[in-house]
Every structure is written in structure tokens, then in C-alpha cells.
Amino acid sequence: MKFREFKNMLVENSHFEIPKNSDFIENITTIESAYTEPTHRFLVIRKLLLPIMSAILIVFAIGYVSLNNTLASTITLDINPSVTLELNRYGKVLEIDSNNQDGSALISGIDYSGKYYTTVILELVQESILQGYTSDEEAFLLFGITASNYQDEFKYQTSISALLDSNEVNLLVFNSHEVSSGYTTSVTSSSLSDSIEATIFQTTNVLTTDAAIPNDSYNNFAGSTISDYFEYCYGTSNLKTIASDLEMTDAKMQLILTIMLNNTSYQSEDSFQILANMSLSQLFPLYYDTQN
Known about the structure:
single chain; seven-stranded mixed β-sheet; elongated
């Protein structure tokens, strides 16, 4: 068979018709008609949704930053250097302030940025040992905790007590609030077998001026109130002013007042100044005597 004849045969037999399947065509039409353009309302909502969500995230971010940088509580620490830690609601340190010259030296090498109060307290104690203000063999630490309520103060108190639980640490913690009325302290010491909780003053002010010196005191202040005593000796009964002038924390003032009210040996005109000049290693034993 010649090539030309074979070619003509292929051409004649290669034609075929595409089947007309109406069902298939209808289905395609149905599928295409199922799509509808988005409504105007949907487009508007979609355009507004992103900025609304962004605004909500910004508000939450601002609130979080604000809480992170808002002062919620303070913890004072007396070693004999004296410092104040300012905390946010999460227990992170916002600032450390020195309350006396030794305190300035103590905090000069402390980096507190972004750290929790427990970490900073340990660093302060270690630094006080390095600078010779206290010893790793026997340390005397006085804390004063001020928060908006007793529960927060107790949380800090418990944490600090656990953090510094050691036979070498004599620890005294004063809170500004108590479960019921009055103020309590928690004392732990190598010289004491158990913790002691003792109500100091049944009052709503930790620096009370209403507590009276016992009538059996041997000096002329017997039966006088703390207010009378300071008015006579210092010309003012504002204990916070006196404490500030003496670079003294509220906790140390409370410690001294407790000794004065319960120890007749320290109820004379110059007793407060004598106690104010004492170190914690001298004050703590006097305080323990008032609790026995």
C-alpha cells in the first residue's frame, strides 16, 4: 500500500463527534450558579474587624504594661544598711531606694531590673556579707511589709521566711495589716525553737502613739502615752517624721517602740535615742525578751 493511500485512510477514519451529555452540562451550570458575590455588609465587617482587633490588643498591652509598672507594695530591709524595695503586683522589683548612707553603698552593685523580690533579697543579703555589714555565720535581718491587704503581706512574709530559713539567720518580719485587729510580727531565730506570732498593738496604725508606758515604770513617763513621750522629748508626736529624720524604717521604729513599752530599762527620756543607735544584733535580743 502506497503511503498516500494510507494517509487518506487515516484522515477518513479519524473523525468523531463529541457526545452531547446534557446532564453533565446542567451540573456544571448548577455549580457555577452556587457562587455569589460577598454582600456589602460582609465587606464592611471584614474591613472593620482588623482595626477593632488591633485596638483590643493595644488596650490589653497598655493594661499589662501599666500593671507591670504600677507600685503595689513595698518591702523594707534593715541589715544595718537600710533599703526599700518597690514591687509591682507580680512581685517584680520596680525600684530600690536607700534609706541611709550604708544602704546606698549596698545597692550600688545590684542589678534588679526585671527580677523578682526573692532574687533581689538574696542578692542584697549576699552583698551585705561581701561588704562586711553582716556575717554568713549569724545574720540579723528586719523586714517591713506594706501591701493593700493582709493576704498579700502574709504571702510575702511566708515567702521571705522560707527563703531565709536558716539557723544562721535571725529574722524578724513586721506586716502593716493583720487578720483581725492589731499588727503581728513573725519571729524566727536560731535561739528560738518555734516561730512566734505576737500582737504588738491593738490599733489600726502600726506606728501608734496611743500605747501607754506601763504605770509600774520607775521614771516620770509611767502611764504616759507614746505620743506624750515624743511630744516631750522631740517636740512632735508624728512618728513617721521622727523616723524619716533618723533615716529609720517603720519596721525599725516598731521594733524600738515594742522594746520601750515592755522593758522598763528603756523608758527614760534618752531611751529612744539609745535604742535608735543600736545595731540589730543588739536590738533583737531585747525584742525577744519582750516576747517571753
